[in-house]
Amino acid sequence: MTAFPGFSRDLPRFLENLEANNNRDWFTRHRADYEGLLLEPARQFVTALVPVLRQLSPAIHGEPRVNGSIKRINRDVRFSKDKSPYKPALHLAFWQGGAGPKHAPSYHFYLTPKTLGFGAGLHAFLDDHLTRFRQAVCDEAKAAGLRRALAGALNGAGYDIGAPELQRVPRGFPADSAAADLLRHKGLHVRKSGPVPQEVFGADAPAFVASQFAPLVPLQDWLVAEVSD
Questions:
Q1: CA distance 112 to 10
Q2: pLDDT tens, position by position, 172-229
């Protein structure tokens, strides 16, 4: 297997141009750039990164295809105020558990024209997963494990936690519960972003990205053990 050489420095420029010309005519004319600068390198990167991630999380899944680890560049505009047809970003996901890339705890890589973001967790729990999550955070020992995992990501590695979806503790739980802050979440994920680092343009990109995910392993492991299928 050929080593991944790094993403082209022309990739952010392509995404910037797509952002400025977000229409089907422009994309059709530049489809060769999409395939050569984004899609094929993304396939190579996923292939190179998965073995490195498995040193952190042995059960990680990654598939070098669109609708596998590579998120579609086409936007679903049916229920969105933003009707632009394309996402000017490269979004990759690597998941754990049997629920697949949409509903399993996942590591995320999100490259835009000017930023690179990392994240982990689940944006929205399925109904049965939400029930398990609420039961787990009301267990003192399990909640302590989650708080340690979050502290490592938030305080140790500079991640931010997604805002809770509920303003109040859900019905059936006491408002003064020790887990009140966690019970207001209907999903649980952390994320951070910053300027695009030089490492993504070289052969060290897989190791660099894995190093950004490493502090998130305890959170992923907790979600897999307590919430996921």
A1: 12
A2: 999 899 999 999 999 999 999 999 999 999 999 999 999 999 999 999 999 999 998 7
Q: Which residues contact 218 (CB under 8 A, 6 or more apart)?
A: 145, 148, 149, 152, 153
Q: What is the pLDDT, as a whole number, of residue 1?
A: 54
The C-alpha atoms of residue 55 and residue 103 are separated, in whole angstroms, by 23
Domains of the chain plus CATH, in order, are 10-226 (3.30.930)
Residue 93, strand partner residues? 108
| Across 119-129, average pLDDT | 94
173-177 LR contacts (CB < 8 Å, sep 24+): 173/134, 173/138, 177/138
Burial class (CB in 10 A: 0-12, 13-18, 19+), 46: buried
Percent of the chain with pLDDT over 70: 99
pTM over 0.90: yes
Contacts 24+ apart (CB under 8 A), 126-132: 126/99, 129/99, 129/103, 129/227, 129/228, 129/229, 130/186, 132/226, 132/227
At 94, which helix (H) or strand (E)? strand 90-95
> How high is the pLDDT of residue 150?
97
Tell me the CA end-to-end span of the chain in Å, nearest whole number.
33
Please answer whether residues 90 and 113 qualify as being in contact, where contact means their C-beta atoms are separated by less than 8 angstroms: no
pLDDT at 82 over 80: no
56 phi/psi in degrees, rounded to 5: -90, -45
- Inter-residue contact 187 to 125 (CB < 8 Å): yes
